[in-house]
Amino acid sequence: MNKKLLCLFFFFLTIASCNLAFSQEQEEKQPLAKILIDIEKQYHVKFSFETKTIEGISISPLYPELSLDQVITQLKLATQLNFEILSDRFIAITPKTLSELQNQIQHLEEVVVINYLTKGISKTNNGTIEADTKAFEILPGLIEPDVLQIVQNLPGIISVDERISNINVRGGTNDQNLILYEGIRMYQTGHFFGLISAFNPYLSEDITVSKNGTSAKFGNGVSSTIAIKNVDELDKKTSGGIGGNLLSVDGYAKIPLSKKTELQLAARRSYTDILVSETYDSYFDRIFRDSELNTTNDNTQLALDERFLFHDFNAKFLYDINKTSKFRMNIMNMYNNLYYNQVFTTSENNFQETKSQLNQVSFGASANYAKQLKNEINISAETYYSRYVLDAKNNNVTSNQLLEQENKVEDYGLRFDISKVLSASLKLNFGYQFNEVGVTNLEDVINPNFTSLKKEIIRSHALFGEIVRYSQSRNTYLRFGARINYFSKLQELIIEPRFAFNQKISDHFRLEILGEIKNQAITQVIDLQQDFLGIEKRRWQLANTNNTPLVKSQQVSAGISYNHNNLLVSLEGYYKNVSNITAQSQGFQNQFQFTNDIGSYTVKGIDFLINKRISNFSTWLSYSYSKNDYHFENLNDGNSFPNTIDLQHVANASLTYNYNNFKVGFGINWHSGRPFTTPSSLQDESNMVVEYSEPNSRRLPAYFRTDISAIYNFSISKGVKADIGASVWNIFNQTNIINRYYSLDAEDSLIKIDNRSLKITPNFSFRINF
Question: Which residue range or ranges hold the Protein FecR C-terminal domain (predicted)?
Fold first, then answer.
């Protein structure tokens, strides 16, 4: 433990030293003409412009380690000018036309923090955090821009069990996150049953994360909103890339079809069904170690045949109809398959064979049409279809017993948006959204014969509107809106107010206040811990008028930030209450495992971040404190008790270094243990059940993990570049217990089961981009 504290102290000391050593740095603005000369020398390019175009414009110096594309992007943001790349050497600078300036007003949100943690991650004045995977460089433990791994580096976001598919935002469960991919609501987010993001990282360009103060156009997710979009502008030239790591191979391409159309393709497939790596062994051990597949009791395993694979495919069609209208269409498919065949002897020395199979499939499609009308009016129409299927089969060949389970979700959506620019500092947004969600649950048993089939449908209508205002000084940003939802089956009409306020207090200080009320009609529940082979045991379920009401949330937060001399310090406090949750949705593995009740949880917490950039170094420390308590009227005698996913203290310290074509990242992750329930000291063996003490009254040992990664870029030939990356997750092979529960064995003796985190997990990647 002393070594862990020493590592954390080292990072504290590093950041403190940086602040002292560089507190006198000044970042005075310089004339644009001088900055352009410096850029020409560094990148061997030439700017073409009329002198009057850049007269009187001064901006802050740019980071010298930025790529040319990043430099152009920053210049566009800082100068409000057009920068058009004419060739590899020449760049034209022109003033924006009135139409372009008016169109720019359509997006009043501005970036207030560049390089929030590292390059490619920014924070805007409306409270959202945006990640640009093209500009993204490196994070500890990552060698590819894994969308949902990047998100977990933000304060207040963590996965208590290391699964991508179980992201917890400010104490919320994973099913309370609204995750949109190109406007398609996603019900599956991970490969390898949650350990790898299912979104291809090489077409996914923009990620927007909202922890609070969500725009009124988004609904049906009470915890957070994560919107993922692919490249949305025509590239006008063919480009692509192929690559692979120790789990999969992938490729992507951007293919212009004409001056107005383009096709984007991306595909990835694992080779884990034909070739096994150490990375695969580590992942497989993490997911299946304590599942039903690995439980043979007193039986002796004689043979095992396992095959696992995953793949995904994405395609996007872009059509710029004319200068004022465009059309976009997307399709995607995600697939996980596990085949697990066991042969073993029973305690009576008989042979027994079981064949198990688990499939997880998602398909989605969306289409979007947008047009800019006269009088500063923008309209758009979007429709989508999302389908998710999880099915498991467990076939005992010897006894001729077959168990089949299926959970299917079908989601249809339609949304109209209208925005109107009222003035240079005022904008109005409003629209309508319709959704129809159907959920089917099937359980079919042969020998004995039993079949259960349930299907439910909910249709919802929503009207939303919001007004966005900037002060004339551009120091004050305010967005206020509301969403009116009507759920026809439940006959409930609900109003959800939302607001976001950002105030520049001085040159370096900003104040931010966010708030929202949201509702959700679909959640995940666990009927039995052994469902779906004990791997993906959660099933989606719709709200009803009986025992599953609409989940409702209220949240408010206030924060202040200081940003100067490449030093960012931010502190944010929040209060969050989520009501109408069911005990089944919380996955209890104690005395409440088979009890259902309706209750709530309340989270109070703070998120702290300090980030310092020094030349080629970026170092940051984040810390989150929260207190997350349940309250159920009929559980624990009505007394509150800690939430199952309550991590009171979470800390991350990281350091990244970027020099020329080499990047390296090193990070330490620590958090206090999650709560669990211990058995009572006195057990009544005649009950044949475990008797427990106070719920969630004890905590697991603290979690500690150290990661490292490195990437090297180089050119193979003109227009062809390559990347080599290597990473090690949990480099000290720390044994972390992420969950603990108790059960009875075949002889009714009490046993303790500890779910362990990923052990040391290396990975290696190689890519070619052209």
Answer: 29-89
Q: For residue 481, which of 460, 501, 461 has the smallest C-alpha distance?
A: 501
- DSSP helix, strand, coil percent of the chain (3-state; round to 5): 15, 55, 30
What is residue 583's DSSP assignment?
Answer: G
Please report whether residue 205 resides in a domain: no
Identity of the amino acid at 458: I
Q: Tell me the pairing of strands 737-744 and 649-659.
A: unpaired
| 3-state per-residue secondary structure call for 305-353 | EEEEEEEEEEEEEEEEEECCEEEEEEEEEEEEEEEEEEEEECCCCCEEE
Tell me, yes or no, whether 629 lies in a domain.
yes
Q: Which residue range(s) make up the domain with 277? A: 239-769
| Non-local CB neighbours of 422 within 8 Å, separated by 6+ positions | 376, 428
The answer to whether 632 and 583 have CB atoms below 8 angstroms apart is yes
User: How wide is the angle at C-alpha 334 spanned by C-alphas 330 and 339, nearest 5°?
Assistant: 165
Q: 12: helix, coil or strand? A: helix
Q: What is the pLDDT of residue 653?
A: 95
Task: Flag whether 248 is in a domain.
Answer: yes
Q: Encoding tokens for residue 741?
A: 């529960």
Report in angstroms the alpha-carbon separations of 59 from 28, 80, 94, 97, 100: 8, 11, 17, 21, 21
The Cα 559–Cα 15 span in angstroms is 21
**Number of domains, the chain:** 2
Q: What is the pLDDT of residue 97?
A: 61
Say which CATH number the domain at 468 has. 2.40.170.20
- Please indicate, yes or no, if residue 182 is contained in any of the structural domains: no
Distance from C-alpha of 143 to C-alpha of 141, rounded to nearest angstrom: 7
Q: Are 153 and 166 in contact (CB under 8 A)?
A: no
The answer to whether the beta carbons of residues 700 and 678 sit under 8 Å apart is no
Q: How far apart are CA 751 and CA 745, in angstroms?
A: 7
Closest residue by Cα to residue 264 from 312, 204, 310, 322: 204
One-character DSSP codes across 50-112: -HHHHTT-EEPPPPTT--HHHHHHHHHHHH-EEEEE-SSSEEEEEEPPHHHHHHHHT----EE
**Residue 210 near residue 225 (C-beta atoms within 8 A):** yes
Q: Do you find a cis peptide bond into 448, omega within 30 degrees of 0?
A: yes
Q: Please, are residues 273 and 307 in contact by the beta-carbon 8 Å criterion?
A: yes
Q: How far apart are CA 442 and CA 404, in angstroms?
A: 8
Q: Give the chain's residues under pLDDT 70.
A: 1-28, 63-66, 77, 97-109, 292, 294-300, 346-348
Q: How do residues 493-535 score in pLDDT, each as one tens digit?
A: 999 999 999 999 988 899 999 999 999 999 999 988 888 888 8
pLDDT for residue 26:
37
642 vs 631: CA distance, rounded Å: 9
Boundary-marking domain end, from 96, 116, 148: 96
Q: Any idea of the CA torsion for 682, 687, 689, 692, to the nearest 10 degrees?
A: -30
Q: What does the alpha-carbon distance between residue 316 and residue 220 come to, in Å, rounded to a whole number?
A: 26
- DSSP class of residue 531? G
* CATH (domain of 86): 3.55.50.30
Choosing from 96, 118, 141, the residue where a domain stops is 96
